[in-house]
Amino acid sequence: MLAASISSIPEGVPEGSAWVNYTRCHDDIGWGLDETVLRNLGFDPFLHKRFLIDFFLGTFPGSFSKGELYEADPRTLDARNSGTCASLCGLERALENHDEYQLELALKRIILLHTLCIAMNGIPVIYSGDEIAQLNDYHYVRDPRKSADSRFLHRGKFDWGTVANGNNLALPGSMILHRMRRLIAVRKNEPLLGSGNKVRVLQTDDIGVLGFFLEAKAFEKHTSKILVLANCTEYPKMVSATQTNLRLDIYHGIWTDLIQGKYFDPFSSRVVLGPYESLILKRNDYAS
After folding, report:
1. pTM for the full model?
2. pLDDT tens, 62-116?
3. Shortest CA distance to 108 belongs to which of 134, 132, 86?
4. For residue 275, what are the domain limits?
5. Where would I find the H helices in the chain?
6. Which residue, of 168, 189, 210, is where some domain finishes?
7. Helix or strand or coil: residue 245?
8. Cα distance between residue 173 and residue 167, in whole Å
9. Tally of domains in the chain
């Protein structure tokens, strides 16, 4: 579904304009899904939307998320979701349960979402508090002026204490801040991660792995090329470098992950992705 959504984004924008990308914002999450796309992918639009609403509320069996509803309609069963990125990704519940494994997965989910936001064509916007993985702030219910609006759940005061302890990577917020700084540095130093480049979505050989190429529009040959691979599951995945839609083996040389510095030789190995791991692989001077 994510691949289909990215593929449907129009490439042409007015001169001097750009898309704005964000993981979360000050507002609620309204599930304005394209029902035609959902049906073509085999989903029932109503049931899938109800699944999303319940999952991010935290009531769906097995959900790691903690959030609240906004503008819930008991007649149509429609609703929107409120909550910070970190709490919706499972960090709050993991901390409450003292669950180290779920804590690690929650942090990986947060990093994955921000990595995709940074890598996509457009200008990334980080909502205040997301860079330090702030949790839901329930104090709003004590304020009569705010208590009826669950959107204040993710409008808490910025925690400057976490920033002051930014070097203590044992703290979840500091670890996210450290990774965000790394992602921003990669973005600022890599032209192919800027606005106005061409995005080509790939159909990988695993439904849980998202893949897309980033290419400069100005040149067709002898230029840089970036491949983004993202494991959107909590299970390790392997992607064949020679699969029909990927074919990394036709580009001679080594691909390097800009985030972690990993090297990948498409002739000698598969791409191995850990749970929720993402790679931004770059190869220069490829032959087409």
Report:
1. 0.91
2. 999 999 999 999 999 999 999 999 999 999 999 999 999 999 999 999 999 999 9
3. 86
4. 196-283
5. 2-7, 35-40, 45-57, 85-88, 91-96, 100-119, 160-164, 172-189
6. 189
7. coil
8. 10
9. 2
